[in-house]
Amino acid sequence: MQETEFRAVEMQGSQGKAIFTDGQIPLQTDRLQIVAPELALAEPLADALNASYESHRLFLVWSRPCWELTDTLETLERARSDFVRHDAEKKCFLLTREHPQQLVGCIGFTPQPDGSHEIGYWANRSFQGRGLMREALTALIAQLPGARLYLTTSSANTASRKLAESVGFRLVRTLVGDRRSDVFGVCDTLVFKLGDAHWLEASS
Fold this sequence. Notes:
Largest sheet: 5 strands, antiparallel
Helix content: 25-40%
CATH superfamily of the domain at 27-144: Gcn5-related N-acetyltransferase (GNAT)
CATH class of the domain at 27-144: Alpha Beta
Order of helices and strands: EEHHHEEEHEHEEH
Number of helices: 6
Strand order of the largest sheet: 1-2-3-4-5
Distance between the termini: 28 Å
Radius of gyration: 16 Å
Strand content: 25-35%
Structural class: alpha+beta
CATH topology of the domain at 27-144: Aminopeptidase
CATH architecture of the domain at 27-144: 3-Layer(aba) Sandwich
Number of strands: 8
């Protein structure tokens, strides 16, 4: 399974409302522990990002070939501060329950002025092909009843499309020739949504 990229997801809600309530995070699934940012994750975060550069660089503009411990400590400090603010991104980190110091990936929710939320995520290349990102997304979506979700991905990113469909998203629009990639050339942007039928039709 290649690296997946969810570029934009929206959630209906009132501006300023916390995306997760007390008790929802940390969250356990059969194989994962989903946790808030903490500085103890700095080393496994650096390991995961460095191991995944070759797949991340295909779709994630922020990827780089080398992350130092100081880089991930700074990232986690900012993420920890943001997690308690209603107007900032909430990053959730995925750990295996069997080996808690192995970081599987990250899913983040960023509030928008209209009360929606944008979601982005990345996966550790070492854990691809095991269904762990699907397991995490399914669990998080279940914590957000009534959410109206939106995501986009490149037509070159087959893994992202399959993942979106596997957790219930529906392809509602194709933006032809919307992206250019040094690796894949001209690509389409695929728009997926998950929510009630009225919202899907009204916003497609």
